[in-house]
Amino acid sequence: MIRSREVPGQRRSRTAGYVVALLLGALVAVIPATADADPPVAPLPTGTDVDYQLGGPAEVPEHVGIVVRDRTDDPADGRYGVCYVNGFQTQPDQRRFWKRHWRLVLKDGGEPVGDEAWGEWLLDVRTRAKRADLARIVGRWVRGCAADGFDAVEYDNLDSFTRSHRLIARRQALAYARLLVRAGHRAGLAVGQKNLAGYDGTAIGYDFAVAEECGRYRECASYVRHYGDRVLAIEYRRADFRWTCAHVGDRLAVVLRDRDLTPTGVHEWC
């Protein structure tokens, strides 16, 4: 190999400069990625029970390690807290708020489309602009959950589009769900898929599932297939609760609640 003549020390200077340049380049490349990275989330624990306290806080038994509460309530001390946020529908007591955002409520013939079982209006997620506006509103609530000390968020209700009189397409609901999952992760919260059995929510980033009445509809296995042990099973009828306990109670967190989820109502575990 022919080497060019070089003054001793000059080559060392060039090498050192090259190394410094590489380090600076690497640092510049890393800083934006670190700044944009989502904070770590605490995964849903397994091997413990869950209580579903959406109707108001109640005493938490020692064997219960996961407590789901409304975003307007404080998380339970010393438990893994899941913050309930109605992301796809309105709360019955928030109609005044949504009338100020009337364009974001789904309407058919000028009348709001409602989930009759719960007296809630569906949110209109049919356009990219509306999805973005809704995600900004819900995102503020989610950041509030994180600030209050919750560990995770569940968005009610991924299968809302099935009650939209065919006005909302599945793809539109999933596009909106992606925005909500991103909002949860950016806030440092694990995110739960609420209902829509058979859909693999892990494909868009969901971390666990909340399955209402999976025993009643024989859907529990669908959630287990995608989430393993990280499924919270909520039953409202005793016969369904017994079935769920018999079939998945040794693996999943299962609770029997009264349908109104009152603090003094039914709280039973497998």
Notes on the structure:
With 270 residues, this protein is of the alpha/beta class. The protein folds into 2 domains: 37 residues; 227 residues, Alpha-Beta Barrel (TIM Barrel), CATH 3.20.20. The chain has 6 helices and 13 strands. A 9-stranded mixed beta sheet has the order 1-2-3-8-9-10-11-12-13. Strands 4-5 form a two-stranded antiparallel ribbon. Strand 11, helix 6 and strand 12 form a beta-alpha-beta unit. The longest helix has 27 residues. The radius of gyration is 24 Å and the shape is globular.
Summarize the structure.
This protein is of the alpha/beta class. Helix content is about 35%, strand content about 20%. It has a nine-stranded mixed beta sheet with strand order 1-2-3-8-9-10-11-12-13. The protein has a two-stranded antiparallel ribbon with strand order 4-5. Strands 6-7 form a two-stranded antiparallel sheet.
Total discrete domains: 2
Query: Given this structure, which CATH class of the largest domain is correct?
Result: Alpha Beta
Q: Could you estimate the helical fraction of the residues in percent?
A: 25-40%
Query: Which stretches are poorly predicted, pLDDT < 50 over at least 5 residues?
Result: 1-35
Let me know the largest β-sheet.
9 strands, mixed
Counted by DSSP, the helix tally is 6
- Which CATH architecture of the largest domain? Alpha-Beta Barrel
Strand order of the largest sheet: 1-2-3-8-9-10-11-12-13
In the CATH hierarchy, the third-tier topology of the largest domain is known as: TIM Barrel
Strand content: 15-25%
Would you tell me the overall average pLDDT? Answer: 89
Radius of gyration: 24 Å
